[in-house]
Amino acid sequence: MNTVGQRKMEAVELDQVLQQNSEQTDQYLTFIMADEEYGVDILRVQEIRGWENVTPIPNAPPHIKGVINLRGTIVPIIDLRQRFGLSKAEYGPLTVVIVLKVNTRKGSRVMGIVVDAVSDVYSLSADEMREAPDLGDNVNTSYIRGLVNVANKMVILLDINELLGGDTIPEVSAAALGEIKHMSGH
Amino acid sequence: MSIDLSQFHQVFFEESFEGLETMESSLLDLDCDSVDSETINAIFRAAHSIKGSSSTFGFTPVAEFTHVLETLLDQVRQGTRKLMPDHVDLLLQSVDCLRGMLTALQSGSALDVAQSHDLIARFNAILSGQAAQPSSVETVTASVQPATAAKPAGAVDAMTWAIRFIPDINILRTGNEPVRMFRELAELGSMKVTALTDKLPDLGQLSPENCYLGWDIELITLESRQKIEEIFEWVADESDITITAQASADTLVPLDVPEPEPAAESVVVPDVVDEKPTKAVERRAEPAAEQAKAAESTSIRVSIEKIDTLVNLVGELVITQSMLGQLGNEFDMSKLLRLQEGLAQLEHNTRELQENVMRIRMLPISFTFSRFPRMIRDLSRQLGKKVELKLSGEQTELDKTVLEKIGDPLVHLVRNALDHGLETPEQRKAAGKPETGLITLHAYHQGGNIMIEIRDDGRGLNREKIRAKAIANKLIGENDPLSDDQIQDLIFQPGFSTAEQVTDVSGRGVGMDVVRRNINELNGSIDVRSVEGEGSTFTIRLPLTLAILDGQLVQVGEQVYIIPLVSIVESLQPRLSLVNRVAGGCDVFRLRNEVHSHYSAVRNFCHHTRNQQLEKSLLVVVETGTSKVALVVDELLGQQQVVIKSMEANYQKVAGVSGATILGDGTVSLILDITDIVQMAGVHQQHKNGLKLVSSRVGAG
Known about the structure:
The complex is a heterodimer.
Chain A: H1 2-22, E1 25-33, E2 36-41, E3 45-50, E4 64-70, E5 73-79, H2 80-83, E6 96-104, E7 107-115, E8 117-125, E9 144-150, E10 153-158, H3 160-165, H4 174-183
Parallel strand pairs in A: 2-10, 5-7
Antiparallel strand pairs in A: 1-2, 1-8, 3-6, 4-5, 6-7, 9-10
Chain B: H1 9-29, H2 37-56, H3 60-77, H4 85-107, H5 114-129, H6 144-149, H7 151-154, E1 159-166, H8 178-188, E2 189-196, E3 214-221, H9 225-231, E4 240-248, H10 260-274, H11 277-296, H12 304-329, H13 336-360, E5 362-364, H14 366-369, H15 372-383, E6 387-392, E7 397-399, H16 400-421, H17 425-430, E8 437-446, E9 449-456, H18 463-472, H19 484-489, H20 512-521, E10 525-531, E11 535-543, E12 548-556, E13 559-564, E14 568-572, E15 579-582, E16 586-591, E17 594-598, H21 601-605, E18 618-624, E19 627-633, E20 635-643, E21 657-662, E22 668-672, H22 674-680, H23 683-700
Parallel strand pairs in B: 6-8, 13-22, 17-19
Antiparallel strand pairs in B: 1-3, 1-4, 2-3, 5-7, 8-9, 9-11, 10-11, 12-13, 12-20, 14-18, 15-16, 16-17, 18-19, 21-22
């Protein structure tokens, strides 16, 4: 209990320090998937590791690749490509798993996402961020925190808790993502 | 800042509940005709310590109530009062009342004192009836006056003691409470207290956690010096205490003495209380704050012996580790043998350490069994039945979590045995049985399991009645041929109760299905054996612990799965000729003329198998409840103990999987939930069809 509390405290402190130093900017770790760049809140990232074989879970949806042993804890691995309905990529030695801490209603969980490659770390302020366009009722965009232009590139910032935290994972399609980019004038 | 007493509340409640249990079981052991002084003493001691600690913590209603109870017990203990059966009843009710009060205090809810006042009134009625009896001298009572008033009658060695009590400055920090000691002293006789305030610093320098006061106490009492010393026992080491005998009060006229004291006492004591007014406020605020904490934190008592073993084992582990470390620094092949020895020792150490750590969580099943004597006593009266309860194997140890969860199912089974199982004395006589029925609770080890048997010598299960009821509830068809075992098994179906009338005790229809489900959740199983007219036996099988499981590793395709060893009946190679295909995709397999629906639950469940042909696969026959099902696997690997890891911690419940474990090579392997898999495959449903099929075939052949 103590160590968890401590870690939480540290995270909070770190958060404060970061905020003070860079005046309301958040840092995002970005990664590449099918030539697009996505970002996640860096404070949610626990570690980055190479792809290793997983133990598949029977009757799980295809984007749930299985579980791995992360120093004694069972951690599920989610293929974000398949999750977004993108074409499936072959896993190779360069394939990367980002281990994230996700806050859910039932407490915090540790999950891994498979992405093509890790790209960069950006400091972004809230002003730079644009809301994801509303695509009507049939496209769920709640898992998108915002869109940001960095050096003429569009980066999609993901809300990890929305994306992975729910009991049922919201339906996301490649078409929807394409539409989002189209509408935001990319 | 005063001492935060609330940190001890958890311990207080645990100790008090334990004390109540002791009282209860001792009360049930009591035989009114020949009172065993040891038993009475045990009850008295328990009551006394509850009284003492509850007044320390400021739970006055509890302390007051226990006090009256204690007074009666004290008279019985000293032989001045004969114990009557209705006293025992009253005392048992008081135990219930105290338990209620303590539970209310623990959860921080409002205390219902109506019941306790009622009981206090009844105690007082008994106690005042005692006034007629002549031979009572040493009645311990709450207030000072009656005790001194009783003196003239005896007028023995009333002594005046001058006590100088200068406590250590840190006395409050050690959890000792001078006010409480004064209260105890006041019970011994009449006293006069003067506070010595000479060491009191200026207000600016005063630290509220220190005790700067000393006291001069003049005590007139019948009690011996030893009794007085006992009160100061806890603080004697760190305080300056002098007890001197003054002129014996004998020479004085005893009646003159009491008058001035109550006044003196009431003047001085507030002085002490004033010192820490914050504490009084805190006491009131505590329960609410404590509420949440009490709910979630549970603790466990571990014997020193177990801890010592652990410390020793860790010591050994460290030695082995340093030995291996040394070996590794300058290793060459000539030392291979020593390395192997060292590794063997490491394995040995680890296994022992693991076993002992697991043992910490183990508690004797008597924790659960102990509630039954009382329950049986009350219920048998309510139902007008005569019952004897026999407990055996109470020392069998069980994981704490299992122990907590098995309580309710057991209560249900025992109630059932008493209500449905046992007949009334008249019926028993008519059936040629002794009037007193017998219920036996027996716990023992068998293999890696704990078995609990609940046996009664009552009327047994009436198969015709069960059958009729099952047909009425459309659980079975009218002409279904069912074996006796299968009929008995029907009582575990939802919504099934054969009680003719719903009583207060049982028969509300929430029944055996819940019992079975609870037990299944613990990875256990329950069976019933019954002979009509002779009684029934329910046998519960439980795993020793929930954290470790004996598993059979099986290979299915590329993956290794684990089947709990408990559920495996046997493994075999199937012959194709023994497999029949039934419509609906379910295959049925005949094993020594017993029919098992088998099927590739595992094969469907998992992704693909290497051996596509059935004859090259293996069948693992597993048992769920009473139905047997064969699973198709590719290969049997080894058997090993696996540590169960939760899948739900980071993911969610996966149907058909009860958890995961990490194998020796670091990969994750899933543990199969047999009950779930069978249900998922729909095999359970088809099992009945399979049976029908066979029986009709028997008819034809």
